[in-house]
Design a protein that fits this description.
Blueprint (H helix, E strand, L loop, with lengths): L2 H14 L1 H29 L4 H35 L6 H10 L1 H22 L6 H14 L3 H8 L3 H12 L3 H23 L1 H9 L3 H39 L12
Helix pairs in contact: 1-11, 2-3, 2-11, 3-4, 3-7, 3-11, 5-6, 6-9, 7-8, 7-11, 9-11, 10-11
Length: 260
């Protein structure tokens, strides 16, 4: 596929199952936001309703909820996306069953995804002039593993073999995938700008009530995380299919009478 197709086709894949994605992830965001707000309220009460206690409670619980939400969105989007490619029906219940079956490899991928991201940025960002190089390095590393999750689901492999498959499939195209990831990050930055105005907007409506603003920010942040992961996971499916077709002739159909 050309670079432009790698940018456009993920949205076509999402559109093919938009009602399923909207319903499932809408509920997931609502549940994650409810739990985050509940824990934040508990922490606030435990710290005597202090501003710092409420802030750190909201921040940490939202980060944990976002991590779990990304895992869920990734684990549902990829099998549904592969079903779209194979032109097979799949309900969200079937996707959740596949997520449960691949929970171990998926957790390993998510943990390494997070550790590599934190490690590279911790090394590269203390000096401002090295931060852009650290970001590009991180995207290159993630580009090598970009097809891991689709391989885990489509080939029923573990994390280690899925990672090896991804490195094999993406060999020679890492920089193209870096470009795709940079584009997606830029798109997300454009989308996140309206979130920066939410506190002032909410304060104007609610009379600067802290809890209304807190709930709104937590919900908006988790919704943003879900949308970002949905787009990235759909892009992973498209990249996986493209690389298998290019390297392995996955799209070539051999008539039954010609098979050995």
């Amino acid at each position: 596929m050309q670079f432009r197709e790698l940018l456009d086709l993920p949205f076509a894949l999402i559109q093919a199952r938009i009602s399923t994605f909207a319903a499932v992830f809408g509920v997931a965001v609502a549940v994650a936001a409810g739990i985050s707000v509940g824990v934040t309220v508990f922490v606030s009460l435990a710290t005597g309703d202090s501003d710092s206690g409420t802030f750190w409670g909201a921040l940490l619980t939202t980060l944990i909820a976002a991590w779990v939400l990304r895992l869920f969105v990734r684990g549902v989007t990829v099998p549904i996306g592969l079903a779209v490619v194979h032109r097979q029906p799949m309900t969200w219940q079937q996707a959740v069953i596949q997520l449960s079956a691949a929970a171990g490899p998926l957790l390993s991928y998510q943990a390494m995804y997070t550790l590599i991201g934190v490690g590279v940025l911790a090394i590269g960002t203390p000096l401002m002039f090295t931060a852009p190089f650290a970001v590009v390095w991180l995207l290159w590393l993630r580009g090598r593993r970009f097809a891991t999750v689709p391989a885990i689901f489509d080939e029923s492999t573990g994390y280690r073999i899925g990672t090896q498959r991804s490195k094999l499939l993406t060999a020679g195209t890492q920089w193209q995938l870096v470009g795709v990831l940079l584009y997606l990050r830029g798109l997300l930055l454009v989308l996140i700008v309206p979130l920066l105005a939410l506190p002032q907007f909410a304060a104007g409506i609610t009379g600067t009530r802290r809890w209304a603003v807190t709930v709104l920010l937590i919900t908006a942040a988790l919704l943003f995380v879900a949308l970002a992961e949905l787009v990235e996971s759909a892009t992973q499916v498209i990249a996986y299919v493209d690389r298998r077709c290019r390297r392995e002739g996955w799209d070539i159909k051999i008539p039954a009478e010609d098979r050995p």
